[in-house]
Amino acid sequence: MASADTRSAAAAAGPDKSPRKIAGMFDAIARRYDLLNHLLSGGLDLYWRARAVRELRFTGREVLLDVCTGTCDVMLTALKRREAGPRYAVGLDFADAMLRVGQRKVAERGVGAVAPLLRGDAMFLPVATGAADAATIAFGIRNVYDPHAALVDLHRALRPGGRLAILEFAMPTAPWLRALYGWYFRAILPKIGRMLSKHHDAYTYLPESVGTFYRPDEFGAMLTRAGFSGVRAVPLTFGVVYLYVAQA
Ligand SMILES: C[S@@+](CC[C@H](N)C(=O)[O-])C[C@H]1O[C@@H](n2cnc3c(N)ncnc32)[C@H](O)[C@@H]1O
């Protein structure tokens, strides 16, 4: 097995994750992002987000910080049931067009007063120390240039004992599923993604970035190094997605 250090080198050799490139890519696909998410995951993305939100055990009193919020699906999932949701949810992303789609959805659901959106970088959160009771990152940390730096800053933004839930794709380990997944990732997903998003690279970047991201045990260790405790890595849907849960 590769060590975390050799994987870091592999990750560094993976796709370009400079903030300008990543923000530009998400800006370019923002209009079709939700449709492609639901289509390419067969609707499972809705279940994955709801499962992550459930882990945070909201009581109607918390402040949630949703980093890499994109089009705001995680915070809107959390705000759906107000008594079992957060009191207030702040969404942060650096892609302006993604935030604009999110802003429209937030307004349509009538939660604008309790769901402000901030434009900023996950590595430098414009949030006071200990301001959040809970935090989420869904399918975002893989795209961050320095995920360890982002986790350290997220730890700072959470109050002591605050809960964190992160969703991220992983390569399944069962050989039959790995083969099937590899085929879907190489042959099907990029074609559908390119056809509907009209973006040349975004849906080849997706499998490439998943393939070069940290294994669940490595990412769990990174959370611990960033200061989190009680780290759990829960495989969802045969391990194609992992839910990481931890406490600040
Ligand atoms: C795959 S989307 C996920 C969006 C949303 N969380 C969801 O569940 O659909 C990844 C998002 O992360 C954002 N992102 C990536 N790196 C970021 C960073 N360093 N700072 C802020 N946002 C970032 C992108 O702009 C994009 O909107």
What does this structure look like?
Residues 1-12 have low confidence and may be disordered. The chain is of the alpha/beta class. It starts with a helix and ends with a strand. It is built from nine helices and seven strands; from the N terminus they run H-H-H-E-H-E-H-E-E-H-E-H-H-H-E-E. The protein has a single domain (4-247), classed as Rossmann fold (3-Layer(aba) Sandwich), CATH 3.40.50.150. It has helices at residues 4-12, 19-40, 44-54, 73-79, 96-108, 147-157, 175-197, 202-211, 216-225; strands at 63-67, 88-93, 117-119, 132-138, 158-169, 229-236, 241-247. The protein has a seven-stranded mixed sheet with strand order 3-2-1-4-5-7-6, with helices on both faces. Helix 2 packs across helix 5 (96-108) and helix 3 crosses helix 4. The site of S-adenosylmethionine (SAM) has 22 residues, from helix 2 and helix 4.
Keywords, please?
19% strand, single chain, alpha/beta, 248 residues, globular, binds S-adenosylmethionine
Topology:
Elements: H1 4-12, H2 19-40, H3 44-54, E1 63-67, H4 73-79, E2 88-93, H5 96-108, E3 117-119, E4 132-138, H6 147-157, E5 158-169, H7 175-197, H8 202-211, H9 216-225, E6 229-236, E7 241-247
Parallel strand pairs: 1-2, 1-4, 2-3, 4-5
Antiparallel strand pairs: 5-7, 6-7
Helix pairs in contact: 2-5, 2-7, 3-4, 7-8
Bound molecules: S-adenosylmethionine (SAM).
Q: What is the 3D form?
A: globular
How many E-type strands? 7
Q: If you average the pLDDT, what whole number results?
A: 92
Could you give me the name of the CATH homologous superfamily? Answer: Vaccinia Virus protein VP39
Q: Which regions are unreliable across 5 or more consecutive residues at pLDDT < 50?
A: 1-12
Order of helices and strands: HHHEHEHEEHEHHHEE
Strand order of the largest sheet: 3-2-1-4-5-7-6
Q: Give the helix level as a range of percent.
A: 40-55%
Proportion in β-strands? 15-25%
